[in-house]
Design brief:
about 300 residues; alpha/beta; 7-stranded parallel beta sheet; 5-stranded parallel beta sheet; 13 helices; 16 strands; about 20% strand; elongated
Length: about 300
């Protein structure tokens, strides 16, 4: 097997790489679909990997859906998937607060109903979902009513994000011992046709700027996301492949956790981006250089069908 980084995965090498792993982690947006458009061949790749005895998991930084919502979407698009094979940041954030932080209190949530559901599923109550309209004058904003049971501020995808929510998050974070957790730092979310919208990282940076402190993030490239999968399914990092479209999240997660890495060119990052990291001379940037790349995960089909 080639020892060089950023190698095009094709021909006999595809089979060699697949034989060297027992588990495959896939990002979703830009890898198996773009928005609501499935990547051609992606369902067949996933289903054939499973038929060939591989464990397949999905790790996404998108916090707008529960695990069940993701599994339902995948099934509709033709993927053979179970709910417990999906690890989104809504679920992983809830697990982080419960198992690592051992949170004893409520969460002030700048997030979605999906995040609320995942938090409540592990016994954590929240406040904050929905609009929070501005009222009064500036002097009133600094003394907004706060729930004394709130012990953490959590920032994910919040379509109702507003100045008042930003202010309320700041007021909670000035309280002694209040935890600060974010789902991820992705600043842009790719859509069909080369379009994009602001990502959750934009909201997180706004809160960090106001509070003058940094959040702990649980999504890629933080190793906690892989730890969630590995602890539940006994995944061996030496025999695991991470497949993604972003160098700064997917590929860096793989590097951080000692996994083999595969960049697919159907999403955000390009081979030129990877080569720029490779030639930079920066040790930190080498973690964003994939072991292999393909035009699309459909390039794996011939080896799986053969």
């Amino acid at each position: 097997m080639s020892g060089a980084k950023c190698t095009r995965l094709s021909g006999a090498l595809v089979k060699q790489v697949l034989e060297s792993v027992d588990s495959v982690l896939f990002d979703c947006d830009g890898v198996i679909w773009r928005g609501d458009q499935v990547i051609p061949g992606a369902p067949q790749v996933i289903n054939l990997l499973k038929e060939n005895g591989k464990k397949v998991f999905f790790v996404t930084n998108n916090s707008s859906k529960t695990r069940k919502m993701y599994a339902d979407k995948m099934s509709t698009l033709g993927f053979d998937v179970k709910e417990d094979e999906v690890f989104g940041t809504a679920y992983c954030c809830a697990m982080y607060l419960k198992t690592v932080c051992k949170l004893a209190g409520k969460v002030y949530l700048l997030g979605s109903n999906a995040m609320r559901e995942e938090l409540e599923a592990v016994g954590i109550q929240q406040t904050g979902v929905g609009p929070d309209h501005i009222f009064g004058k500036q002097a009133d904003w600094a003394t907004v009513p706060l729930d004394p049971e709130v012990k953490a501020v959590v920032v994910g995808f919040d379509e109702h994000f507003s100045y008042m929510k930003l202010n309320r998050a700041l007021q909670y974070l000035t309280q002694p011992g209040c935890l600060f957790v974010g789902t991820n730092r992705d600043t842009r979310l790719p859509l069909e046709g080369g379009k994009s919208v602001p990502g959750r990282g934009c909201l997180l940076q706004a809160v960090e700027t106001a509070a003058q402190c940094q959040a702990q993030t649980v999504g890629k490239p933080n190793h906690f996301m892989f730890d969630c999968v590995a602890s539940q399914f006994g995944v061996d990092p030496d025999r695991c492949l991470m497949v993604g479209d972003r160098l700064d999240t997917d590929i860096l997660l793989g590097s951080n956790c000692g996994l083999k890495t595969l960049l697919t060119l159907t999403g955000v990052s390009t081979v030129a981006d990877a080569e720029a990291h490779q030639k930079s001379g920066s040790v930190e940037r080498q973690g964003m250089v994939p072991d292999y790349y393909v035009e699309s995960i459909a390039d794996l089909l011939p080896a799986l069908q053969g």
